[in-house]
Amino acid sequence: MRLSTVDLQKRLNPDKPKGLPMLVTVLIAWLAGAIFTLALAPYDIWPLALVSPAILYALLIPVMNGKRAFLIGQAYGTGLWCVGAFWLYTSIHVYGNTPVWLALIMIALMGLGMGLFHGFMALTFNKVVGKQPLSFAALWVLQEWMKTWLFTGFPWLFVGYAFTEQYWLSSLAPVAGVFAISFVAVLLAASVVELLRRRSGYMIPSLGLLAISTALWLINPQWTKPKGTPDLSVSLIQGNIPQDLKWLTEYQIETLKIYATLTSTEWDRDLVLWPESSIPMFQTEAVGFINEMVKMAKETDTTWVTGIPYKDEAAFDASTDKYPPFYNSVIALGADAEGLYKKQRLVPFGEYIPFEGLLDILPNLAGSQDIMSYSRGSDKQAPLRVRGHNLGSAICYEVAYPDTTRKNAIGTDFLLTISNDAWFGTSAGPLQHLQMVQMRALENGRWFMRATNTGVTAIIDHKGHIVERAPQFERTVLRGEVQARVGNTPFMRFGQYPILFIIALLLVLSYFGKGSSAQVRSSKQV
Questions:
Q1: Which parts of the sequence belong to the CN hydrolase domain (predicted)?
Q2: How far apart are the first and last CA of the chain?
Q3: Annotated active-site positions, please?
Q4: Domain 225-494 classified CATH 2.40.280.10?
Q5: pTM for the whole thing?
Q6: Mind giving me the DSSP string for 425-494?
Q7: Could you tell me the residue ranges of all domains in the chain?
């Protein structure tokens, strides 16, 4: 078979496309990533969680050059993070007093950095594994999982969260977690692209998994069951303290007055819950106030749980110039209560300085001796004891870590999370955060109490439904009841290991099957 010069050039330079110019392709990829945020709260246009990865898959399939694939994936990831996490602008500019131009540059740099996950995913898809829906979905979940631990992690904007209340997919959450939902959704999206390319065989795995998910939804297995004790009456206090005043020394007394006043009518409840750092000083500095609250709680047979910075003076070494360790914590006090939980997952630069130990070798660095960081709590902490129940805890954004929350949920009857999302104003950030709590409730089959400073304060049942919800940016009390539940979901037992094993197996098979499938395609072309 003779080949013309044009045919030879096409074979030797397969990446010079007949279709869209590279600049247009990159722009489409950026927009595909940007629109994904509309699939999440508060917009909840969940079909976009299928459309967005489908576009990326369609853009990558015809590309043969690794560099081009990386640029397309990088553009997608940058669009995803620049738009999906733009709520960081509020904390950087409004509360961080950073100039607008610099705040925008910082958001862009964050987008570029986080975009690398999709960039390397696209490169691997192009050069390492077979280019088909199963490997694409497996790589997608791999990069989502890596976001939970690489460089301390930033586990946000997962595809699975878009289906938190789409029960035909969310039924997978208690079985294998949010990553299982992401896998099925992305597999379905890529398979539809192949169907449009008249390669219908790729639909079989996705349809099979959809059938399993739908069957679970219809059967509605009860992975956990009520403990058999009466529901607890709870009051969640939302102080709505402005972020620019919260940590001012001169406003501390006013903050305590606000929470004490809001709680004054709630002392006959089973449990009163205050948000993260609602006492804006160390426990050693608020002894009188804490004693007064504990007295009221015991007199009315009420359990009081509050967020507070906790200084561990027992661990202080007077022979050094270092501060005693202190923690972002939640403590249970009052009637029938005990326990202290110390936050495990700290916010880089917000709660601790990465590589802070390096400052010890720079004694002349201005201000280095005054830098203080929260200490990390142990990953093996006993749950709080509340009214004869075990209460698991998650402080602020550590509830975004599926495995951390899972471990804290084991052996508990219900869960709490406290937060201060005032940093993010009226942006989508707090509502995305709430959606993650719903997913954690689904995964672990436990009721969640969520108390926040400015919202969203809510009570969520074991199916991820919001039972009660307080309005944002109001000084208010949310009253409701929570149910203690026992038993373990499959996700609680096995965590992320089953889905990680599956994607690892798929990627290995795809890697070794790549050569044979390429030969088949080549023979068909000839």
A1: 237-484
A2: 9
A3: 276, 343, 396
A4: no
A5: 0.91
A6: TTSSHHHHHHHHHHHHHHHHT--EEEEESSS--EEE-TTS-EEEEPPTT--EEEEEEE--EES--HHHHH
A7: 13-221+496-525, 225-494
